[in-house]
Design a protein that fits this description.
Chain lengths: ~280, ~350
């Protein structure tokens, strides 16, 4: 019987500092053991526990798509004890990964429909995974129109910048990038994500909306989506909770009777309406 | 866990002594230690070490299946090597837990739901559980804090027991519940008689007297329907007295929440899990500073609703067996029975 608490060793192949504040880094991992690599089957939206021996673990969304063969990305903001030490790691260091855990974005439901992605700040990680998944050329035909609204506080805080500029030029998707406040070099849109969303007013017809961002963005985005005609069954959020085990046993990440680690992290607004407002 | 197989036979005092002696010979036997020091259970090496306590023991048997602190693995930070070997878990010798009351036995059935049945198995729990046989004792002396009947347990409940023993005045009725229980009895090679009508009557009287002693502060009907409302104003009242010490969760035989932390000395360390409690603010505090349960009100609501509402959705069971330990040990006399009564009456 396997001990589910043993992390799989993974080597850091590349580290990218994503923002001006230098507190968001993307780590690209490769598993040390081939059987771990082959066994790590996941879908966009899932997460894993990153483990630093001697420091602990923290749950982080997987930022890459399973279609990006040879890459396993996690974008980590330096926030607490474990992430602080993870940020001190260097290329070539080995850390541990446990997972994948949780559910994914509703790919089956999204198939054959338009997809609207609304993201804010550093919470864009699993939405990036979903975007990369849909843009993969074998998958692109499975989804109709793809629209992304993504924003950050300032130009320096946008993550995955090169990809954002590439997506902006691509005809495969409609990309709207905004910042709360620009600087003298900023030539693009200014304004909060919910406001920009309201201006663009994408159709809710045959469309699934995926939303992930800071609480304040979500709070103002949901009424806009509602106004645009999105029913709660077709709005999906990815939630965060303090977690330990990741497998529904340690008991701390519940919202009502749902555990975010196994029943989530992705929930539809219709599901959340049934649960206590305690997240 | 297996097909039910109920059989009853009678033991006189000397038969029971012999039964215990033979059990001790062939198995690792654990019974309540009678002491108020964790883990509250002890290995029985000789007959004289087994004593039956009144009502539920000081601690439940949760300690055996889910130790207060447990090493998940050891590691060396310098070499990045992990050592997950665990001699205790590799030992497959049959373990017999004896002397627990029906409430504590039922609690094990509830822990099974969490660690074995809902998703992937917890290897630590599963190994211990699979090698364990449970001999519970029907309860003849419930305490004033007991309320097992109100939560669907009872002085003669057989949940998760392989064998239930009824201690009568000068004899014992042994009831095997599962095939494992039957094998356990057969392997002792005891030659036992069936149970006379007279003895059955004595048992019925004993159980009835037990039932009569149980105070019905609230009844199982009070728990039916939509018993608790997340938005209700009573949560603010109920939590006023609570100190947030968490002793209720530590003594609860079904509370199973745990923390995972690393302990380090030099370059060597171990990752351990230890009991945690939803009554503590750190339990849900995010690294960002946000806390979905910032005050005692939310935490008290979580504890009670998890036991009586959420667990029904998750496992189809209420996670309370009525042992009364939370009532006994609460330093401010916050009585769960009264809380439920008040909620049921809509106060």
């Amino acid at each position: 019987m396997n001990n589910p608490y043993i992390p799989m060793p993974a080597r850091i192949e590349k580290i990218t500092t994503e923002n001006e504040a230098r507190d968001i880094k993307t780590f690209d991992f490769s598993f040390v053991n081939n059987e771990d690599k082959d066994g790590f089957l996941f879908l966009p939206g899932q997460f894993a526990e990153l483990s630093l021996l001697g420091f602990g673990e923290c749950p982080i969304g997987i930022a890459s798509s399973p279609t990006e063969v040879g890459h396993l990305l996690f974008t980590v903001k330096r926030t607490g004890f474990v992430t602080k030490h993870l940020h001190r790691a260097e290329v070539g260091d080995t850390i541990g990964i446990r997972g994948p855990f949780g559910n994914s974005y509703p790919l089956d439901l999204m198939e054959g429909k338009n997809v609207l992605i609304v993201g804010g700040g550093f919470a864009f990680t699993t939405l990036r995974a979903t975007t990369m998944y849909m843009l993969e050329h074998n998958n692109r035909g499975r989804f109709k129109e793809l629209t992304i609204v993504y924003g950050a506080r300032s130009p320096g805080e946008l993550i995955y910048k090169q990809e954002l500029w590439d997506w902006e030029k691509s005809t495969d998707l409609n990309m709207f990038i905004t910042v709360d406040k620009g600087d003298e070099r900023w030539k693009r849109r200014e304004g909060f994500v919910p406001t920009v969303l309201e201006d663009i007013a994408p159709s809710s017809q045959d469309t699934v909306a995926l939303v992930c961002g800071p609480p304040v963005m979500i709070k103002f985005t949901l009424p806009v989506l509602q106004k645009l005609g999105f029913p709660p069954e077709r709005i999906f959020l990815s939630l965060e909770m303090r977690m330990k085990c990741g497998i529904g046993m340690c008991g701390r990440c519940n919202i009502g009777h749902k555990y975010v680690c196994v029943d989530g992290p992705v929930f539809s607004c219709a599901q959340l309406d049934e649960l206590p407002q305690e997240y | 866990m297996e097909r039910p197989m109920s059989k009853e036979c009678l033991m006189y005092k000397e038969d029971f002594e012999e039964f215990l002696a033979r059990l001790i010979e062939g198995h690792s036997i654990f019974c309540p230690s009678g002491e108020d020091i964790s883990p509250g259970i002890k290995k029985v090496a000789g007959r004289e070490q087994f004593a039956l306590h009144r009502g539920p023991s000081h601690f439940s048997f949760k300690h055996y299946f889910l130790p207060q602190t447990e090493r998940l693995f050891s590691f060396d930070m310098a070499s990045n090597k992990i050592d997950a070997s665990n001699g205790e878990l590799d030992d497959n010798k049959l373990v017999v837990l004896i002397g627990l009351r029906p409430c504590d036995a039922m609690a094990i059935e509830l822990l099974d739901q969490v660690f074995l049945q809902r998703g992937p198995e917890d290897v630590f729990y599963a190994r211990r559980r699979r090698r364990t046989r449970i001999i519970s004792f029907a309860c003849s002396e419930p305490r004033t804090t007991c309320f097992c009947e109100s939560v669907g347990c009872g002085p003669d409940a057989a949940a998760s027991a392989d064998m239930v023993i009824f201690a009568l005045k000068d004899s014992y009725i042994v009831k095997t519940i599962t095939q494992c229980g039957e094998e356990l009895l057969n392997n002792t090679g005891m030659n036992l008689d069936g149970v006379s009508t007279e003895k059955l009557g004595e048992r019925e009287q004993m159980i009835n007297e037990s039932r009569d002693r149980l105070e019905k502060v609230f009844t199982s009907e009070d728990l039916n329907g939509k018993i608790m409302d997340f938005e209700a104003s009573y949560w603010k009242q109920i939590c006023q007295k609570c100190l947030g010490c968490g002793i209720c969760t530590y003594f609860c035989p079904t509370c199973h929440c745990f923390d995972i932390v690393d302990e380090v000395a030099g370059s060597k360390g171990r990752r351990i899990r230890s009991w945690d409690s939803c009554m503590y603010p750190l339990f849900t505090l995010h690294a960002s500073g946000h806390n979905p349960r910032p005050t005692r009100k939310e935490r008290m609501r979580q504890r009670i609703m998890h036991k009586f509402v959420y667990s029904m959705e998750q496992y189809g069971r209420r996670f309370c067996v009525g042992c009364g330990r939370c009532v006994i040990h609460c330093p401010v006399n916050l009585d769960l029975r009264l809380v439920i009564k008040e909620i049921a009456e809509g106060k």
